[in-house]
Amino acid sequence: MNIQTEPAKNKKRHVICMASDFFYPNTGGVEEHIYNLSQCLIKRGHKVIVVTHCYGDRVGVRYLTRGLKVYYLPIRVFYSQCALPTMICNIAIVRYILIRECIEIVHGHSAFSVLAHEVSIIGKLMGLKTVFTDHSLFGFADMSAVLTNKYLQMCLCECDHCICVSHTGKENTVLRAKVKAHKVSVIPNAVDAYTFTPDPSQRDPNVVTIVIVSRLVYRKGVDLMAAVIADMCPRYPNVRFIIGGDGPKMWLLQEVREQKGFQHCITLLGSLQHSEVRDVLVKGDIFLNTSLTEAYCMAIVEAASCGLKVVSTKVGGIPEVLPENMIYLTEPNVTSIVAGIELAMKDLKDNNILCPYKCNQMVRKMYNWMDIARRTEIVYNRILLNKNKPLGQQLKTYLSCGVWPFLLVISLMYLLLKLAEKVYKRKHIDIARDLKL
After folding, report:
1. Is the CA virtual torsion 166, 168, 169, 170 positive or negative?
2. What are 172-211's pLDDT values in tens digits?
3. Could you tell me if 38 and 59 are in contact, meaning their C-beta atoms sit under 8 angstroms apart?
4. Which residues are paired to 60 by β-bridges?
5. What parts of the sequence cross the membrane (predicted)?
6. Which of 25, 44, 130, 281 is close enough to 306 for a disulfide, judged by CB 3.0 to 4.6 Å?
7. Shortest CA distance to 306 belongs to which of 286, 285, 282?
């Protein structure tokens, strides 16, 4: 579906529930996407709420910028910031919120998020429209990927539309979740280029500073990162590495720094708030990304917006993100990455670089949150034309995924919704007032 050509004449006001296990105060690409998309949709006249699980003492209702209402549900985290996939335990509270807020569209985010799938299925059984945004790439071989893909296939059987952040991500989702291609649109992430502005005065002219900002986990290529640092530091005394981020692989970088005696050229900043990232980026000349898999890398766009030369592995959707004159693409191995950094260093020495402020202007035109919100609106407008299916047809669709016991789960969820209607009647639920700021 080419959503670029859709006319922007339909100005219908939508009431949307963003659902995900991942939201602030947790930090990451999914959290930032939900927040920025919600803010722009509110600015365009729509009503948006967010449903997520509690974070520590943050339980209940909170209001963010522009009156964005966030429900932090009293649900315990099971693993890696995700709730336990019970499917039935949260039906009453989710139904209450969807009715109280007069929700029309449930928009789930992230294949890892159990809460996103649960709220979407509950919403579908209540006759609402559902959208799902997939932010990640998955494999097909290991047991974890097989189970995740089958779970995703079951949950997306009745989803009205899917959104992927890159064309590679779309192919991946269509294959592993068996979603029909015409029901999947590509809408990329964006970056606030007015926040990530260049400041060349912060750079040290006597050294070449390479900045890395990433979660330090296996799929971000931390092993490659450590090998590249161990290879380059002895050969280039004027190279400095600034590494922001934390994770289970932090010990590897600490080990390289201590055993090799690289304390003078490696700075480990640890976990960063998103508001601190720009101040780190502007100190660098080169940004390095060593990801092993990536649907869309927001970090390289933020770095390009700050005027850094970007060196990145050529995996997943990364080749789609930036034009050739703004990025050096490499294979995911040490030799290729080092060659890419050396080429970037040579261009810096020869002054063969784009003006940082021109880079910022280019990113501002390519990736804009208001444009992403407009394109998402088009998806909302289209799915509202879909007819709701009765329970029998929904069960027939779920049967197509090949997991017969899942029909029992859906049937039980439907019966519990009917029971909740008897106990907490819809007419007795107070409708929430819209907060206008």
Report:
1. positive
2. 888 888 888 889 999 988 888 888 999 888 888 888 999 9
3. no
4. 72
5. 397-417
6. 281
7. 282
In b/e form, how buried is each residue of 270-290, taking b as 16+ CB within 10 angstroms? Answer: eeeeeeebbebbbbbbbbbbb
Quote the longest CA-to-CA distance of the chain.
75
Do the Cβ atoms of 99 and 17 come closer than 8 Å? no
Show Cβ contacts of residue 356 under 8 Å, excluding neighbours closer than 6 positions. Answer: 198, 200, 306, 307, 308
Supply 338's token pair.
């080092």
**pLDDT for residue 1 is more than 50:** no
SS3 317: coil
**pLDDT confidence of 374, banded at 50, 70, 90?**
very high
| Whether the Cβ atoms of residue 52 and residue 72 lie closer than 8 Å to each other | yes
Residue with token string 């290529």:
221
pTM for the complete prediction? 0.85
**pLDDT > 70 fraction of the chain, expressed in percent and rounded:** 95
Looking at 290-372, which runs of residues are DSSP E strands?
309-313, 327-330
Residue with tokens 């509110």: 42
Asked if 33 contacts 109 with a C-beta cutoff of 8 angstroms, the reply is: yes
Residue type, 90: N
The predicted structure's pLDDT at residue 427: 87
The HSE-up count of residue 139 (CA atoms within 13 Å, CB side) is 9
Dist CA 305 CA 358 (whole Å): 9
**How many CA atoms are closer than 13 Å to the CA of 316, on its beta-carbon side?**
28
**How many angstroms separate the Cα of 275 from the Cα of each of 27, 32, 106, 280, 285?**
11, 11, 29, 10, 20
Q: Which residue has the tokens 């789930």?
A: 108
Within a 10 A sphere around the Cβ of 190, how many other Cβ atoms? 24
**Inter-residue contact 304 to 322 (CB < 8 Å):** yes
User: Which run of H or of E encompasses 130?
Assistant: strand 129-134
The token pair at 143 is 């047991």
Q: What's the one-letter identity of residue 59?
A: V
- Asked whether 166 and 321 are in contact (CB, 8 A), the reply is yes
Beta strands in 230-387 (DSSP E): 239-244, 266-270, 286-289, 309-313, 327-330
Provide the 10 A C-beta neighbour count for residue 58. Answer: 13
Alpha helix (H) residue ranges in 156-206:
167-177
